[in-house]
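2 proteins. here.
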Amino acid sequence: MRTMIQKMDKPIFIKRSIPLVLVICCLGNIAFGQQTASPFDLLPRIPQSSSADSTITISTSSNPFDKIQLQMDAHRRTSETPGFTVERRRKPVTAKEKTAIFQRFLFFTILTMMVILTLVVTVFRVFISKIWRAFKSDNMLSQLLREQSTDTTVAYLILYVMFFVNAGIFVFLALRYFNIKIAGNNISTLLLCIGGIAGFYAVKHLLLQIVKYIFPVEKEVSRYNFTVTVFNVIAGIFLVPMVLLIAYAPAGVTGFAIYLALGLLLLTIAFRALRGLFIANRFFAWHKFHFFLYLCAVEFAPLLVTIKLLNLY
């Protein structure tokens, strides 16, 4: 009985062993194939002899043409070597070229201001005449404040930006005339002057708005804020011919033009301060200490902060 069972199990054992034998044969074939050369392996294109250090041999021949050929081969090899880069140095800009570039920049800036002024005067002729009358009369200034609209706001904005640019150009030309440098080059100095004046008046108007909302002086502060805008617009208009005269006048006239423009600006500021005192007369009479605090916080602080920032730059 046991013999019959063994005879019946032997074919089953053989059948189950066939897959295992096939797997072992395949693994052996793969291992053997890794040790033999494959026909699909890529052969190196560059022979090993080319990887050797190739140096230029200097011939001791007395023929001068051989030496010239060696030098040409050396230069050809250097320019064709992988990783060879040709460094092109830019020609440094001379001081004369920098001055010419800045003169063109200044000319186009002044020309742009003159074109903008011409367009504004042509389009808003009645508005410009009202601004001039408001500059001379306090009653007209109050009327112009009540007549503000969207169109006039755009005109105020354009004229105010023109004041920033013209005042910055004037300050730059004055600094240049007195040999005072605040930056490395002329364009940076001009941009600093324009940005400094714009920043000064931006801080000033912001502080006036804060004072208006904190204290019960909304009417007076709004009127004084508008007065500052009107006077700066007038200053920006008369600075256009003065800047043109200072920039392109002969050397003997430049100093006179600078002092003339500076005198007109100081007179404008003094007249504006006088009009401001008329607006704040009741506060000045009964609240001298608070008025002094206002002068320190709104009039002097923006100027000192602007000067400090320019010095830090």
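next one coming up
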Amino acid sequence: MTSVNLENETLEHTKQPLMGHLLDLRRRLIWVFSTMFLSTLICYFFVSDIYNFLVTPLAEAMGPGDTNRLIYTNLTEAFFTYLKVALFSGIFITFPILLIQVWIFIAPGLYEKERKAFLPFLAATPVLFFLGAACVYYLVLPMAWPFFLSFQMSAQEAVLPIQLEARVSEYLDLIMTLIFAFGLCFQMPVFLTLLGFVGIITPDWLAKQRRYMIILIFTVAAILTPPDVLSQILLAVPLMGLYELSILMIRMVAPHSDANPENKPHNDTHAA
């Protein structure tokens, strides 16, 4: 009878912390989604300014002209495109807040040493995400759009002229996809360093896989970027640099790193 009571008490103690964690997770999710909703709502009032910002690379590549425009072919297309732009902007703004909520949720379960080790990753994640977004907006797009616009032909150059009549939804979908894709790709140092910190990978192993990673990086760059060589290089080169930075970071922070002499195996000597 005593063992049954003890087992019931153990189950109750197990349920209480679990329920507390679930309630805390629920509060964090409500906070994040509420912030995202509010950010999206605010961004919708500034959607024209956001639209102008996103189409500026294409407008500059087109140059001055009365025929430069984006079109929509469905009655509701422009409205829903504005909603997607507002949602995209809301998620973009909420991203750092999401990371903060993740940190507040997991921090109580970490030791002091683990908190100090994890905090730099938390700070680096939004910085690298914004760097990736800036890379595609300020480097890749100004190089890629003139290449694609070069295929236009005027009436003097062809029997039937070729002129860009891009749909606004397709253009903005492409821009938003590229921004998120570049932002996620720039998370590579955080991801690899975390794997190194827990001992799943080592810097020496990453160094040996360098040639394969170069092929993988250029393959990913070819998939994510517009199909011109310059855009692929503009993504691949920073990713290669971030890969080398990951190796360096693992050597510095990972307790399981082969470079750390304290973690190398040693032979125990026993007295005869």
